[in-house]
Amino acid sequence: MAAASPLHRSLLGAPVIGGAAVVGFLIAWWVSAKSFDPMRIPQPGDVWDAAVQLATTGYAGGTLAQHTLQSIMLAFMGFAVAAGTALPIGLAMGMSRSAEAVFGPIVAFIRPIPPLAWIPLAIIWFGLGDGAKIFVIWFTAFVPTLINTFTGVRTVDPTIIAAARVHGAGPRRMLLDVILPGAAPLIFSGLRVSLQASWMALVAAELIGAFFGLGRVLMTAAQDIFPGMIVVAMAAVAVCGATMTWLLGVVERRCLPWLKVTP
Amino acid sequence: MSGIAFTDVTRAFERKGGAFQALEPVTLHVPDGEFVAIVGPSGCGKTTLLRLAAGLDHPTTGSVMVGGRAVTGPGPDRAVVFQQFALLPWKTVRQNIGFGLKCRGMSDAEARPLVERYLATMRLEGHGDSYPHQLSGGMQQRVAIARSFILEPEVLLMDEPFGALDAQTRIEMQEELIRLTAGQRRTVLFITHSVEEATYLADRVVVMAGRPGSVREIVDVASLRKAERWAERPVEEVMELDSFIRIRTRLWRLLRSAGAHRDDAATHTLPIAS
Amino acid sequence: MSGIAFTDVTRAFERKGGAFQALEPVTLHVPDGEFVAIVGPSGCGKTTLLRLAAGLDHPTTGSVMVGGRAVTGPGPDRAVVFQQFALLPWKTVRQNIGFGLKCRGMSDAEARPLVERYLATMRLEGHGDSYPHQLSGGMQQRVAIARSFILEPEVLLMDEPFGALDAQTRIEMQEELIRLTAGQRRTVLFITHSVEEATYLADRVVVMAGRPGSVREIVDVASLRKAERWAERPVEEVMELDSFIRIRTRLWRLLRSAGAHRDDAATHTLPIAS
Amino acid sequence: MLAKSDLRPVRRRRGPAVGPGARLTLLSAASIAFALGLWFALAASGLLPKMLLPSPWDVAQALVKNIGVPFAGATLQQHLLASLGRFSAGFALAVAVGVPVGLMMGWFAPFRHAFAPFFETFRFIAPLAWVPFAALWFGTGIGGPILIVFSGAFAACVINTYRGARMTDERLIEACRTLGAGNWRLIVDVLLPSALPSIMAGIRVAAALGWQSLIGAELIVASSGVGYLIVQGQGSVETPIVMAGMATIGFVGLLIDLGLRQIDARIGRGWRAGA
Amino acid sequence: APAAAEEVKISYQPALYWSLPFYIATEKGWWKEMGLEPSFSTFPAGPQQIAAAPSKSWDIGGTGSPPAVLGAVRFNLVTIALADDQSDTAWVAARAKDADAILKDPSILKGKEILLTTNSTGHYTAVACLKKMGLGPNDVRVVNLGPAQTIAAYSSGNGALAAAWPPFSYTLQEKADTKTLCTGRDGGAAVTAAVVVRADFAQEHPETVAKVLAVYLRSIAWQKKHRAETMAYMKKFYPEGGTTLSDHFIEMDYDKRPIYTLEEQLKLFDRSKGPSTMDQWHTDLADYLRSTGTLQKTPEAKDYITDKFLKMIADDPKLRAFAMDQG
Ligand SMILES: Nc1ncnc2c1ncn2[C@@H]1O[C@H](COP(=O)(O)OP(=O)(O)OP(=O)(O)O)[C@@H](O)[C@H]1O
Ligand SMILES: Nc1ncnc2c1ncn2[C@@H]1O[C@H](COP(=O)(O)OP(=O)(O)OP(=O)(O)O)[C@@H](O)[C@H]1O
Ligand SMILES: O=[N+]([O-])[O-]
Ligand SMILES: [Mg+2]
Ligand SMILES: [Mg+2]
């Protein structure tokens, strides 16, 4: 995936332009927050104060560190369970039309149902602990990996499959040495989306009686109508999500050393 | 015992709006130890024929036998070399070459010396730990050949194996192939678009015609090759021989008439990459 | 005035671990109206050279002039035909042929008669509303050529235009090209891996050597072609001429020595599709 | 060399007399039946009170009943219509903004560099988190629900368009540049159609995510909508109606996806090889 | 000639007892009689409702007391009347089988979980009740859940206690088979709802505000006089908001949630002998909100509670008669 064209490679690097854009955004915010209705746009100063409060004295039952740690744990668990279940099912669906026929309709039907709608059922089935929260995250994060794994398997170069067959690959070898690595780039694309979905579902998950968590901070701030704190919680979620995605990228490069470029 | 026998083989593919007849009854016999090249217009069913022999596809009617046994699926007695190399991109050169051995359950320790030997035979020393994309096309094709040869198959099935290579590399690979098949005489089915290549390499050249695919003519080269000792001479020299040029021109003429009106027919079909 | 002049052109690509010199100073002059073919081992910089003339790339040092003006970017005075046809799959044959005219701001009504004329010239009547995937390779390449010719470029840059075609179609396209360039004499830079093709088509054949790319020798064919009236004879006949075979063999020898030790160098580079 | 008896045709495939298509349909039906059966059994087992896990039959009854009798002020089809309106607006906006943004990111590097930091962070924020701001900025206006659905659907549109645009065959771009195509024409005539399969895949994901955000969108102002129905139903522990709402969302979501698939298949019908 | 009807935007939450007066007024055609043309918006919860105020999406609304106080601090909402008193119907409940043991010895609750919605009247009630039962704020573990989730969780066996406000408290009792341990009133907490107006709107259109309030009060006066008819309206109104209550709870709503006529309101808002009852109730609530960290400091009652509009009605004989349903 080379740059679209030499003409459109920019003279300045990504960090410079990206940095400038972020600074520009902050200035635009600062100016507009001053000039528009101050009740409706969180003031930079309020956000700063909220950040300080959260980091030091705490809010919604804990400090930034406690909330963040808890959310990272939860998002990761949800993501891990989602990936751990979606991968084998996706592989099965990709390799067998029967498995596709079995799982396909159920997944297609359940997939549009929002995480919020599952909360009561999650509580009834799993109680108020982490189980219910992980279940809610799982529901959202499961699908992207599943679909990408399925598509990845189906798009493995048939010539390569044929080559492996003529060299005597049995089902096990085919899975481990051909299908899995062949589908791996797409699987990782799916994992990225699942990771995003995990963080997005976190807010809903932490509605289930969470004692700590950024989602709880968000919802408490929403209850309290504390826009500054909402922004702080949003920013914390965004930073955590982006960081985990970056880590996933590192893992991806480690796992796929044969790729010329990782997308 | 490794001859290939196609007997009244047809293959029809399901298409929107009915079946598409890719091969009309084809009967072709490649005796044990012979090198047969197939040339023919695009879409005439060359790849289909080869896939039938490989066991990657099944005939609609008729029978395909290799070494006296009916073909039911791929087997290590038949190695296939594809035009696009079809190396596993996620495996190093060494792992690719050893893949078939591993599939047979051989341990790494057992496979190692064999792999090293083929690395050397194929002049790939020093590249054992590279990934395929780090190699030139010629080197990739050498890896693909090594991967097949290491299994010591009785039958070699090659589908335009040198089509993706540049002219010089191609010639080198042709010489290489002559050398390798001369060492251990093997039954070879070799598909090519190059009439020169077919003439230079094969004992017999099968000219196919298309829509539906059929054998148009079989041209014998073996007698000349033996008589003029082509195998012992550099390829440029062989290609300048009058006898060589005559066969080549004859094949060309056959092909051009076989391929006539191809474009019009092609409108209604999808060219599928071999 | 449409000659191409490369003067002391070099091109270095950035790579991990320093610059990679793809071309060492190359000086080459293609006079107005001449047909020059370039052959050379894979990776020797043929495509790089062509891209410089097309304005798709810029030299690291030296100058590239076309028609007396320095090249700064792509322009409609220079048409490029690629090996992979590079047709827009989502446009019909008609739309593909008319694409360049549309880019110039010509209305559909104005473009229509021109497009129809080229459909006829290229023997594509009846396929105007087909999509590329419905055509055979040869027809696709004819569309690509029509798309370029319709802009009446002074310079034609062709990068292995027939490399993806099968042998028979390739020969037909070669004859077609002879016919077209004979009609309106144009400056042509033609890259090929086929020594026969270069010999058959070109006035002069440039043999390049690799790593870094350089011009090894230039072989004149024009005088022979004229003397023996190749253009008026069928290609099979020409290719059997002693004179033809002699030039071809000479080019081959040059090439094989130019390509020596290529593989070792290739380890450290990624072959990039032209 | 060949024994006559060996000349029997190769068996193509072992399997039942039913065609593969029919067999797969059968499997799908069996799987759905199994899931429903499991649900029936669980509901009938009495492990959970009926109030918390009604049987599929109760849910179906609640669903049918709500078609005639309003719940939370409207019949099911009225709720559905209201939800579809909100969804369409937010989803259409996400596509209308996301696809051009993705194309611009694919084509103009400076745009990509400038936009990426926001994009790579904002996409982790749940639609639900925007509810307070949606209320603050748009009040009771349609803008609020649109913002929520948009925040759910936008990222998928951008990412897939961007990836699709970046995957565009460079040779096509160069060929068109040599034919005189400018930026605009390249984006419209080359990048966009080339990215179309990826864009459509993204749009399908976006539709699913946007549709999922409905509950959030209907938390701001309430008087109608399937999301509202679910929340109100949850509030009074009318589990059958809640599940009827979930089933409706699931089913309509499925229909939306099928519709988009149809569009996808139609768009490239002419030119996509094998279409 | 009659002037064109005045437009006014009114907000409330569906299916609540204190929303009923808006509904009855519409049914009775009293808005028109007052020359008003209201448009209504309903919000599923208080935070969204008051957050929609600064965009001028609504002018006057009914809302729970916590959002009323929060809205005063955040968005300059002014409290102009009391909507209802739900102190008897917001409660802390336990499973019927456990209730007696708990009442006998509340200390067995130590370390147990109570399910409730934080920063709500339910929480406010719970804090007061726990104190009354002799339990400190850290003796039980508060699990924060939305009202619907509280019911689902409690009825599937989670938590030792649950707290909620009506109608969720009713649902809790009905569907989870609970017994009330302590109401807001038992704990000494005034759990109320209020009528609020945007300060800028009140400034610009005092007459309109007075008229809307007069209509609201007329409904109240009428409701107090017509028990059976009011309950009939409740049975029509509640399901439109997705709530279906049994007759028992309909009666409870009517009988146990005091509402106040103009005269009674004036007494509640009377500051002639120091802070009014209303001031006291809201200040207590604000103190609670400060204790949870929602508010940084307790707002001055007189800054956001006013009897100005009640007095405007009282001082205008025509309005007064209308508001007392004597027209
Ligand atoms: N799986 C398939 N489904 C449908 N049609 C097929 C399939 N495989 C091949 N065909 C058709 O059968 C015919 C023969 O195909 P085949 O690939 O054998 O030709 P070929 O001679 O190898 O051509 P080429 O020289 O282009 O590789 C073609 O028309 C092709 O379109
Ligand atoms: N964009 C690029 N970045 C880095 N290296 C490049 C780039 N383009 C070409 N090269 C390198 O420059 C050398 C010349 O490449 P070029 O494509 O011109 O060769 P070629 O003669 O056309 O080869 P072929 O016959 O295989 O098409 C090669 O080693 C190639 O790897
Ligand atoms: O997270 N949801 O907005 O449903
Ligand atoms: Mg083929
Ligand atoms: Mg090239």
TrEMBL record, chain A:
Question: Where does it primarily localize?
Answer: membrane
- Does Transcription regulation count among this protein's keywords? no
Q: Which domain of life is it from?
A: Bacteria
Which keywords does this chain's UniProt record carry?
Answer: Cell membrane, Membrane, Transmembrane, Transmembrane helix, Transport
Q: Which GO terms describe its biological process?
A: cellular response to sulfur starvation; transmembrane transport
Q: Which residues cross the membrane?
A: 12-31, 72-94, 106-128, 134-153, 197-218, 225-248
The reply on keyword Transmembrane helix is: yes
The protein's matches in Pfam families, at most eight in alphabetical order, are given as: BPD_transp_1 (PF00528)
**Cell compartment(s), UniProt:** Cell membrane
Q: Where is the ABC transmembrane type-1 domain?
A: 68-248
Q: Which InterPro entries match?
A: MetI-like, MetI-like_sf
Family membership: Belongs to the binding-protein-dependent transport system permease family.
State the protein's name.
Answer: ABC transporter permease
Upper classification of the source organism reads: Bacteria, Pseudomonadati, Pseudomonadota, Alphaproteobacteria, Hyphomicrobiales
Automatic annotation (TrEMBL), chains B, C:
Superkingdom of origin organism? Bacteria
Q: Offer an example of a GO molecular function term for this protein.
A: ATP hydrolysis activity
Keyword Nucleotide-binding belongs to the record: yes
Give the record's keywords alphabetically.
ATP-binding, Nucleotide-binding, Transport
InterPro entries for the chain: AAA+_ATPase, ABC_transporter-like_ATP-bd, ABC_transporter-like_CS, ABC_transporter_ATP-bind, P-loop_NTPase
Q: What SMART domains does the record point to?
A: AAA
List residues of the ABC transporter domain. Answer: 4-235
Q: Name the PANTHER family for this protein.
A: ALIPHATIC SULFONATES IMPORT ATP-BINDING PROTEIN SSUB, TAURINE IMPORT ATP-BINDING PROTEIN-RELATED
Entry similarity comment: Belongs to the ABC transporter superfamily.
Name of the protein described by the UniProt record: ABC transporter ATP-binding protein
Name its species.
Answer: Xanthobacter tagetidis
Automatic annotation (TrEMBL), chain D:
- Alphabetic keyword roster: Cell membrane, Membrane, Transmembrane, Transmembrane helix, Transport
Q: Biological process GO terms, please? A: transmembrane transport
Q: Which SUPFAM superfamilies match?
A: MetI-like
The stretch of residues making up the signal peptide is: none
- What compartments host this protein? Cell membrane
Chief location of this protein? membrane
- Which Gene3D superfamilies does the UniProt record give? MetI-like (1.10.3720.10)
One Pfam family hit: BPD_transp_1
Q: Where is the ABC transmembrane type-1 domain positioned along the sequence? A: 80-260
The membrane-topology field of this record reads: Multi-pass membrane protein
List residues traversing the bilayer: 21-48, 87-109, 144-162, 205-229, 241-260
For this record, the Gene Ontology CC terms, alphabetical, are: plasma membrane
Family from the record: Belongs to the binding-protein-dependent transport system permease family.
Indicate what this protein is called per its UniProt record. ABC transporter permease
User: Which organism was this protein described from?
Assistant: Xanthobacter tagetidis
Show the taxonomic lineage: Bacteria, Pseudomonadati, Pseudomonadota, Alphaproteobacteria, Hyphomicrobiales
